[in-house]
Amino acid sequence: MLTVDNLRFQYAKKPLFDDVNLKFTTGNCYGVIGANGAGKSTFMKLLSGDLDPTNGSISLEPGNRMAVLKQNHNAYEEHTVLDTVIMGYKKLYDINVEKNAIYMNPDATEAESIRAGELENEYGEMGGWTAESDAAELLSNMGIKESFHYKLMGDLDGSQKVKVLLAQALFGNPDLLLLDEPTNDLDPRTVTWLSDFLADFKNTVIVISHDRYFLDMVCTHIVDIDYTQIKSYTGNYSFWYQSSQLMAQQLANKNKKNEQKRKEMLEFIQRFSANASKSKQATSRKKALDKLDITEIKPSTRKYPFINFKPEREVGDQILRVDNLSAKNEDGEVLFSDVSFIMNKGEKIALLGADSNAVTAFYQILAGERDAGDGTIEWGQTITMEYLPNNNDEFFTESNDLELLDWLRQFSEEKDEQFIRGFLGRMFFAGDDIYKKSSVLSGGEKVRCMLSKIMLAHPNFLLLNEPTGHLDLESITALNNSVKDFPGNLIMSSHDHELINSTVNRIIEITPNGIIDQLMDYNEYVKSPKVEKLREELYAETV
Predict the structure, then answer these.
(1) CA distance 386 to 117
(2) Mind listing the pLDDT tens digit for each residue in 279-308?
(3) How many CB atoms sit inside 10 A of residue 98's CB?
(4) Which domains does the chain have, with CATH numbers?
(5) pTM value?
């Protein structure tokens, strides 16, 4: 158990958290949420001991071991991959180093030899005899092949290092596991494996993630950072979101009697408990919900931006035709080839690809920003397309360093200041924010500006390449709802599982040797043996 008592933490004179009291108990998984800048990562650093609280205390039950997902991907460059994983259990690793040093010393004294024997026994009791095989199994489950296990960390690429450090945190069955954005840079299959691993994990997990699907799969509780308060609520992210929205509606309806409000909440909890049966966490979550006192549930003060893509005209029967499209990078290497498909009315496509450069090149060709090596693209005559790139730097250069009011005005037919002010206000740019220079905007603010630009164009076709980058959960939720309700066509790529799964009805994965094209939802696609076989065949041709 981890206990937080009367925690206060402040920068300068302003408190980030105040009077926080929480207990994190064994067998539960806690998802930490909060708007950008709320202090999620700071809270995790306080829990891990990397930061000291201004007041109050944080105490881990004696004898319990804490493991933390490391954020410095270059910290173990001179160590082998297998050793890096085992280092996650520091005491075990240190014992092994010490006893091996004694064994390797031809001048070891009798006392040192006795010490080595004692260490050997302790090492075995801690599970040392299976340490290498346990570490190897974790790595293999994450897609790190055995041929990499004895390589140096410095020889791995960025995505491989992320997986190794995650395996390091999971190694040795820690009593408390702290994970800050563990799904970043993970492929869908590894995310699914991690979700299953944590759902079966018997100890305590505290995790920060912007991936709502992941939070729903693993969490029994949500820890909400809202202004200076931190509160824990029973249920996963969807339960927290839907129940807080229901409570807000009830609060707004002042004429509704308390008994009617209570009845509505109880009915909602019963429906959610039934739906939870789809998750591996169903049993523990349902037990928690059965014990829930509905007075625990509070309306969130969180606000959601207004995102609404409203086409000016309906699409016709001809949408998009792609024939034998191919592209190479600057070194002449094939990014993708033989891409052919016809897009039909009402279709929303998730575009996937193992190589993010290939995916971006495909979007650039569709958007007319890049020439294809071979092949043709034919848009329907009724199509009005808008493109959201994964890198929007060109829209916020020094040469285009306008105040936000004027920046957005250049993309609007309606130039009236009050109209632009109102539009920006709904995207959380209020007061003096509208006079900010566009070059000083944060990553999330730039994405909200780009979404505003697209809304003002009223397109009937959207190209969205990683639209959730830099967005907080509130903005992601608002974007998800708007894309789901969008009546036009779209092609979208995203690492947000829920965004893809809840909106698209067709999956296209591009490879250097053709495409996989399936009419199925994302959950089915990720787990499909047929798709996995096709992928292996297409990528095998490249080797």
Answers:
(1) 69
(2) 555 455 555 556 666 666 676 777 889 999
(3) 15
(4) 2-64+211-296 (3.40.50.300), 320-540 (3.40.50.300)
(5) 0.83
